[in-house]
Specification:
The structure holds 2 protein chains of 2 kinds.
Chain A (H helix, E strand, L loop, with lengths): L18 H10 L8 H6 L7 H9 L13 E6 L6 E4 L6 H12 L3 E2 L9 E7 L4 E3 L5 H7 E7 L5
Parallel strand pairs in A: 1-6, 3-4
Antiparallel strand pairs in A: 1-2, 4-5, 4-6
Chain B lengths: L5 H8 L5 H7 L4 H10 L2 E4 L7 H7 L5 E5 L19 H9 L6 E5 L5 H10 L5 E5 L2 E4 H10 L5 E5 L2 E3 L18 E3 L9 H9 L6 E3 L6 H10 L5 E4 L8 H13 L5 E4 L20 E3 L8 H8 L7 E5 L3 H11 L5 E5 L13 H10 L5 E6 L4 H10 L5 E6 L14 H10 L5 E4 L5 H10 L5 E5 L5 H10 L5 E5 L5 H6 L3 H4 L2 E5 L5 H10 L3 E6 L20 E6 L12 E3 L1
Parallel strand pairs in B: 1-2, 2-3, 3-4, 4-6, 5-7, 6-8, 8-9, 9-10, 10-11, 11-12, 12-13, 13-14, 14-15, 15-16, 16-17, 17-18, 18-19, 19-20
Antiparallel strand pairs in B: 20-22, 21-22, 21-23
Helix pairs in contact in B: 1-3, 5-6, 6-7, 8-9, 9-10, 11-12, 12-13, 13-14, 14-15, 15-16, 16-17
Classes of the chains: A alpha/beta, B alpha/beta.
Chain lengths: ~160, ~575
């Protein structure tokens, strides 16, 4: 996510409006994502250190009704130490998620409701840190609270 | 006149430790200058380009500890291009050739290479302490040299550096028998850590007081480490993926309970919330808590932790704590001296986690508060005026309203009066950062009242050159002035050239300063290096037809006794 501001620097724009005008205009245009590509690349505002900036970028973000947010979460299969990463915003709902995961991990995975000994069950960790069964809440709500996914062996549930 | 032999005077000087004081006593008379020179143990150089190693050694032949700072402060925010400078290699080479018995080296914002670290480790037999803050250019191979060759190493403190992690075995390079390590901080290393080597190292370091781990140290390893080092005073927890293993949690809790000396806690990168509660038993003794990287932990868990921290003096936290959380801080942490609240939502939309109310609550509840860094989405003059009344003891006041030019959100007025109240009430204010919608008026107040101000950061503020002039004329103790995206130009820059004798440095980027103005300044002030930093080095301004009137994107000037530096990259033009 690029962090930048749309208040172009005076060195870019040689015909500045008078200061009071520009502050009124600028305070009306509240969008942070910049129109200026230089600012977008530089990431020099707000004034925080690179390490903190990276930490915050890695953090799960609230899904907005917006175009370029993605929602990468880690996915682990129980018993397999190396996980995968998945962009949940590319799925339309639980069905497409399960289908994709089953394909990715080469096994059949189901949601909580139809448990049996044969299938893996998909669980997720929510913002409170609790592990929950996938499928109980509406998809949009799920996207807002999911932090990571785990495919568990059927017996554990 | 000396009534005492030199040795006695020198002994008296031993009690004078601050750099400012030692500089003062060296000015009293020739005799004192000489005695002070030979007895100065700690040398502080705030700008590595203000002097060179040869002159340093001529003046102070016997020092043991050196502090060097390189890049300007705004380099922390990506405003200084890579390769600008701040190389430590020539310093280490010069010191290695001399007979200085270097024991401590503290570097901030400098470029350090593995070669430098290797040379450092081999050149000084008694080397004890290496502190690197916001440095770059080296790898874990350099750390391996330090570990292998510095047999008396006490401190290896790596704070927020960019280190190339070669996943080597640097942790295994420390002396086999036992080490004299007191501080080991490698929190900023991104790679895997050899846990076995780490545990063995901690077990054979009986003097270890400060241990800060990186991301790669899981919960069960942490428990074992704490069990090995119950004497720990300062702990940086790494990260742990959520462990459902309750046995690990119990082991951790048991280990934590034994750490009765623990006073300082930090880290918690990628930490799951429930692991915080394992630390509740030690909270009542904590004086420093840094949760500014704990981005995964929400406000309520943070609050539950802080409720136990009655002795806290320094708190660094994310704004996810919210105003409610700050109210809890205000009512719990009566010893609080320093607070930093960092933003979590960098996009600036909607989420008003902390507001002016949180700031007011803290100012009302914490009588000892003297330093604050506060990121927020909104502010009012009324709140700032109240804060000023509640807390006239601020030494450092840094407020960053995330949206540039944002006015008082209730009255839509500029925040001049609010900051004016702060500088008027806080007579000891040494450092100030302003933000929000500000006119020249705020600078009038700053120039008038902020008599002790040494460092001022300005972004997106002011209307005309008058603003900057008020500051330059008024703040007699100004040392570092950094300005970005503000309409100050040549008139202000050139008004009083002698100001740049008492100031260490001035940074101006995206302002109205022109090339012609900078050239005139460089002519009038030969004791300055006036650097024009132009990242697009294909577009050298000399070749451009608009020479004099061309606006300068970034200008950095600083006083120096050694003239133009020879290590400037092509995109830096020193006038």
């Amino acid at each position: 996510m690029e962090i930048c501001n749309s208040y172009s620097s005076s060195s870019v724009d040689s015909t500045n409006p008078s200061p009071s005008e520009s502050s009124v205009n600028l305070s009306l245009s509240l969008t942070f994502p910049s129109t200026s590509p230089q600012r977008a690349r530089k990431q020099d505002w707000p004034p925080i250190k690179p390490r903190l900036r990276d930490t915050l970028k890695g953090r799960r973000r609230l899904l907005q009704r917006d175009y370029d947010t993605c929602l990468f979460v880690k996915v682990y299969m129980e018993g397999v130490p190396i996980g995968r990463k998945l962009d949940l915003s590319t799925f339309s709902g639980y069905e497409s998620l399960l289908e994709n995961l089953s394909h990715m991990f080469n096994t059949s995975i189901i949601c909580g409701n139809h448990r049996d000994r044969k299938h893996h069950v998909l669980t997720y960790q929510d913002t409170d840190g609790d592990w929950m069964m996938v499928g109980d809440i509406p998809w949009e709500m799920f996207l807002e609270t999911v932090r990571r996914l785990k495919i568990t062996k059927p017996e554990r549930c | 006149m000396n009534y005492f032999p030199d040795e006695v005077v020198e002994h008296v000087f031993d009690f004078v430790t601050s750099h400012k004081d030692r500089n003062s006593i060296s000015l009293v008379c020739k005799s004192w200058f000489k005695i002070e020179r030979y007895s100065r143990q700690n040398v502080f150089i705030g700008n590595c380009y203000s002097i060179n190693p040869e002159r340093l050694l001529r003046r102070f032949p016997c020092f043991k500890s050196l502090t060097l700072k390189g890049k300007p402060h705004f380099a922390d925010f990506n405003l200084v291009p890579h390769g600008w400078g701040g190389f430590v290699q020539p310093w280490i080479e010069a010191l290695a050739r001399s007979r200085v018995g270097l024991e401590e080296l503290r570097l901030k914002r400098m470029v350090v290479t593995d070669e430098s670290l290797e040379l450092l480790s081999r050149s000084f037999v008694n080397f004890k302490s290496l502190v690197l803050v916001s440095c770059e250019g080296f790898s874990t191979d350099g750390l391996a040299s330090i570990a292998s060759n510095c047999r008396h190493l006490r401190d290896l403190d790596l704070q927020e550096n960019e280190i190339d992690d070669h996943r080597g075995q640097w942790l295994s390079c420390f002396p086999e028998a036992y080490t004299s390590l007191v501080t080991l901080n490698f929190a900023c290393l991104e790679g895997e850590t050899n846990l076995v080597a780490l545990e063995r190292l901690v077990a054979r370091s009986p003097n270890l007081r400060s241990l800060k781990l990186n991301r790669a140290v899981p919960l069960d390893a942490l428990a074992r480490l704490m069990a090995c080092a119950p004497q720990i005073v300062d702990l940086g927890v790494g990260s742990y993926e959520d462990e459902q293993d309750s046995e690990s949690c119990l082991k951790l809790q048991a280990a934590i309970r034994k750490c009765t000396s623990l006073r300082s806690l930090s880290g918690f990168l990628e930490a799951a919330p429930h692991c915080l509660s394992a630390f509740h038993p030690v909270c009542h003794n904590l004086t420093y808590l840094n949760l500014s990287y704990a981005a995964e932990i929400n406000g309520s868990h943070l609050i539950r932790l802080i409720e136990h921290c009655k002795k806290l003096q320094r708190l660094w936290i994310l704004d996810s704590i919210g105003d409610k959380g700050l109210e809890v801080v205000a009512s719990t942490c009566k010893e609080l001296q320093e607070l930093r609240v960092f933003p979590t939502d960098l996009q600036g939309g909607g989420n008003t986690a902390v507001t002016e109310d949180g700031l007011v609550a803290i100012s009302a509840g914490c009588p000892k508060l003297h330093s604050i860094l506060y990121f927020c989405q909104q502010m009012t003059n009324a709140a700032l005026i109240t804060v000023a009344k509640n807390c006239p003891n601020f030494i450092r006041f840094r407020l960053c309203i995330l949206e540039p030019h944002k006015p008082d959100h209730v009255t839509s007025q500029p925040l001049d009066e609010g900051f004016g109240a702060i500088v008027q009430a806080c007579k000891n204010l040494k450092r100030l950062s302003v933000s929000g919608l500000l006119t020249d008026q705020v600078f009038l107040y700053i120039g008038m009242f902020a008599t002790q101000l040494e460092m001022l950061s300005i972004a997106f503020a002011g209307d005309t050159d008058k603003g900057m002039l008020y500051v330059l004329n008024g703040c007699k103790k100004m040392r570092k002035l950094e300005i970005r995206d503000s309409p100050f130009g040549d008139t202000a820059l050139l008004a009083d050239v002698n100001k740049y004798v008492t100031m260490r440095s001035l940074w101006m980027s995206s302002c109205e300063v022109t090339l012609g103005g900078c050239k005139r300044l460089a002519q009038k002030a030969p004791w300055l290096n006036v650097e024009i930093i132009n990242e697009n080095d294909n577009n050298r301004m000399e070749e451009n037809g608009y020479e004099g009137r061309q606006k300068v994107d970034k200008m950095y000037l600083y006083r120096t006794v050694v003239g133009t530096r020879v290590d400037a990259p092509p995109f830096v033009w020193i006038l």
